[in-house]
């Protein structure tokens, strides 16, 4: 095999964010840009000679070209074998499943998740470790560090691999195995959930729709829901992954999954609706005329886990990202299990899952998962809900309302201010940080600040510290406002403001969250001087 050593120079700003490196496609297409980052990943790792690498992406624009480059670089760097999904496809949770099942050294995943795809849109790359999850901060820091000193990369001269037929081929001295991207994942799901009961549910009067948003979960949802469980054809909407997601935004929320939302709000609405994102790790859950917030979804799954075969023995513990509502904390308290609060991003759950301290975890950003893989998992959450629905024989709304009646309702909303000037955004956070000491005791409207901090996390397993993870302002009685800057945006900065309060009184559970949180929302705006500092009177997106 002929290995070429290509000389190169560091490129500014190749710093991995919340989940890897995400930039515009045209940024990735610059000379040496992708190659530099891939070589930096390999240079930051040790001991992979002759080992297996899992490779795949969500099928977005530039996926295939990037995969061919990475295959040739993996061969040049000495990997023994690559497992790649047919068509270059893997959802994030399926890649995690395959890494674990075949004891791979790690995986390189290509996606920009819920961000749009296409020549003028977004692309992304991240590295997952042998446990199957996103690389922890020590590794991503080492990759970044390397990218700032890189002077060469290695690549072999070889023809492109045919990614469209299953089977083995060779790139240089490295084996390439094109595998079915769905099979191993589907087997894992069958092991966790009661497929007989799910088939019976879907064969009866129960009706559902799943919106794959022209993204990666289409093939998975069709294979599992329609082919294996017998849901009628057409249950899966927008089920073919397209390089530009059909021009849509593959973000499973009330705005971007509007066709599904309209169906569930309309006459003859199905009993259940769900959607997943670009790389298949997010989920949105809908009942007939009813939206389940991701924070509530995590709490409901935790409270009902014993009804599902894979979790019938109960949970070791649960975890949520810091800005996620505290609904799951109350379930953990009642169950007498630990509840951990981690920084935003799935990588922080990895150690807790590996150490068996937790079984379920989730984020407010439509992410839920468990110890079955090391990524959040959209379709898994859908199957979990279906299993709970089948077992309880109640509607989505009945289950959630009963949950609120028992645990109280955590009114919750997230307000995003997108593409704001990066310096102004940082200035706003810095100003809040400077005032943390003077906030406790201050009365704002009917609320009094109890305490405030800049969230810092010490990993209970390896004691690593991650600081500056978001400003928390907590009021007496437990209501909170959290401010943080996004680590996944590709244009300017995105300020996220998370607002929450607990309502124990069932008589008060029928309000719209924006109304129930009205006072806190205006306190949050004033406290951070959002309009004065960013010029934005209203958020761009309200979830
Ligand atoms: C966002 C979410 C975060 C999630 C991350 C990756 O990050 O808030 O909860 O883990 O996206 O999700 P940020 O830094 O923009 O707030 V995914 O589906 O893009 O892997
Ligand atoms: Co995603």
Key terms:
543 residues, Alpha-D-Glucose-1,6-Bisphosphate, Chain A, domain 3, 7-stranded mixed β-sheet, 7-stranded antiparallel β-sheet, 18 helices, binds alpha-D-glucose-1-phosphate-6-vanadate, binds cobalt (II) ion
Describe this entry's structure for a reader.
The chain has 543 residues and is of the alpha/beta class. The chain folds into 3 domains: 3-181, Alpha-D-Glucose-1,6-Bisphosphate, subunit A, domain 3 (Alpha-D-Glucose-1,6-Bisphosphate, Chain A, domain 3, 3-Layer(aba) Sandwich), CATH 3.40.120; 185-407, Alpha-D-Glucose-1,6-Bisphosphate, subunit A, domain 3 (Alpha-D-Glucose-1,6-Bisphosphate, Chain A, domain 3); 409-542, 2-Layer Sandwich (TATA-Binding Protein). 33% of the residues lie in helices and 25% in strands. The strands form 6 sheets. Strands 2-6-5-3-4-9-8 form a 7-stranded mixed β-sheet, sandwiched between helices. The longest helix is centred in the first third of the chain and has 15 residues, at 63-77. The site of alpha-D-glucose-1-phosphate-6-vanadate has 18 residues, from loops.
User: What is the CATH-assigned architecture of the largest domain?
Assistant: 3-Layer(aba) Sandwich
Specify the structural class. alpha/beta
Count of structural domains: 3
Q: What's the CATH H-level superfamily name of the largest domain? A: Alpha-D-Glucose-1,6-Bisphosphate, subunit A, domain 3
Give the SSE layout.
Layout: E1 3-7, E2 21-24, H1 25-28, H2 33-44, E3 52-57, H3 63-77, E4 81-89, H4 92-101, E5 106-110, E6 122-128, H5 137-147, E7 152-156, E8 167-171, E9 174-179, H6 183-192, H7 195-203, E10 208-211, H8 217-228, E11 236-237, H9 258-265, E12 272-276, E13 283-287, E14 290-292, H10 294-304, E15 318-321, H11 327-335, E16 339-342, H12 350-354, E17 360-363, E18 367-370, H13 378-392, H14 396-407, E19 409-420, H15 422-435, E20 443-444, E21 447-454, E22 457-458, E23 465-466, E24 471-475, E25 480-485, E26 493-503, H16 513-516, H17 518-528, H18 530-534, E27 541-542
Parallel strand pairs: 3-4, 3-5, 4-9, 10-11, 10-12, 15-16, 15-17
Antiparallel strand pairs: 1-7, 2-6, 5-6, 8-9, 12-13, 13-14, 17-18, 19-26, 19-27, 20-21, 21-24, 22-23, 24-25, 25-26
Alpha-D-glucose-1-phosphate-6-vanadate (VG1) binds next to loops.
């Amino acid at each position: 095999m002929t290995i070429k050593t290509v000389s190169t120079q560091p490129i500014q700003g190749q710093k991995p964010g919340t989940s890897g490196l995400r930039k515009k496609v045209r940024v990735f297409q610059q000379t040496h840009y992708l190659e530099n980052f891939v070589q930096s990943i390999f240079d930051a790792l040790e001991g992979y000679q002759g080992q297996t690498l899992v490779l795949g992406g969500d099928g977005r624009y530039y996926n295939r070209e990037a995969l061919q480059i990475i295959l040739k670089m993996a061969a040049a760097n000495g990997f023994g074998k690559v497992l790649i999904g047919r068509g270059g496809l893997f959802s994030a949770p399926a890649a995690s499943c395959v890494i674990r099942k075949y004891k791979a050294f790690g995986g390189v995943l290509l996606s920009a998740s819920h961000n749009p795809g296409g020549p003028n849109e977004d692309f992304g790359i991240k590295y997952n470790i042998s446990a199957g999850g996103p690389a922890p901060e020590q590794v991503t820091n080492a990759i970044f560090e390397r990218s700032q000193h890189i002077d060469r990369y290695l690549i072999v001269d070889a023809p492109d691999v045919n990614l469209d037929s299953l089977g083995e081929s060779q790139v240089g001295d490295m084996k390439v195995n094109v595998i079915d991207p769905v099979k191993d994942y589907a087997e894992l799901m069958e092991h966790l959930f009661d497929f007989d009961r799910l088939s019976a549910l879907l064969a009866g009067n129960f009706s559902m729709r799943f919106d794959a948003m022209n993204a990666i979960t289409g093939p998975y949802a069709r294979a599992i829901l329609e082919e294996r469980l017998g849901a009628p054809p057409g249950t899966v909407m927008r089920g073919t992954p397209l390089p530009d997601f059909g021009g849509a935004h593959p973000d499973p929320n009330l705005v971007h999954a509007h066709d599904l939302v309209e169906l569930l709000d309309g006459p003859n609405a199905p009993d259940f609706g769900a959607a997943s994102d670009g790389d298949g790790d997010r989920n949105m859950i809908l009942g007939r005329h009813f939206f389940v917030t991701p924070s509530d979804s995590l709490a409901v799954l935790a409270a009902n886990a014993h009804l599902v075969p894979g979790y019938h023995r109960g949970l070791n513990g649960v975890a949520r990202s810091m800005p996620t509502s505290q609904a799951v904390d109350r379930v953990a308290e009642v169950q007498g299990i630990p509840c951990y609060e981690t920084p935003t991003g799935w990588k922080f759950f990895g150690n807790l899952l590996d150490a068996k301290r937790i079984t379920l975890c989730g984020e407010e950003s439509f992410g839920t998962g468990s110890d079955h893989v090391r990524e959040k998992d959209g379709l898994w959450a859908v199957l979990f809900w279906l299993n709970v629905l089948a077992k309880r024989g109640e509607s989505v709304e009945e289950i959630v309302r009963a949950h609120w009646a028992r645990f109280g309702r955590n009114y919750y909303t997230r307000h995003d201010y997108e593409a704001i000037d990066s310096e102004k955004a940082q200035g706003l956070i810095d100003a809040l940080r400077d005032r943390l000491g003077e906030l406790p005791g201050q009365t704002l409207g009917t609320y009094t600040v109890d305490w405030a901090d800049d969230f810092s996390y010490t990993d209970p397993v390896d004691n690593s510290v991650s600081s500056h993870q978001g400003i928390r302002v907590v009021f007496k009685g437990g209501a909170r406002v959290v401010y943080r800057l996004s680590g996944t945006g590709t244009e300017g900065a995105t300020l996220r403001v998370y607002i929450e309060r607990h309502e124990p009184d069932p008589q008060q559970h029928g309000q719209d969250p924006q109304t129930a949180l009205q006072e806190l929302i205006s306190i949050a705006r004033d406290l951070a001087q959002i309009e004065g500092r960013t010029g934005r009177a209203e958020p761009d997106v309200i979830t």
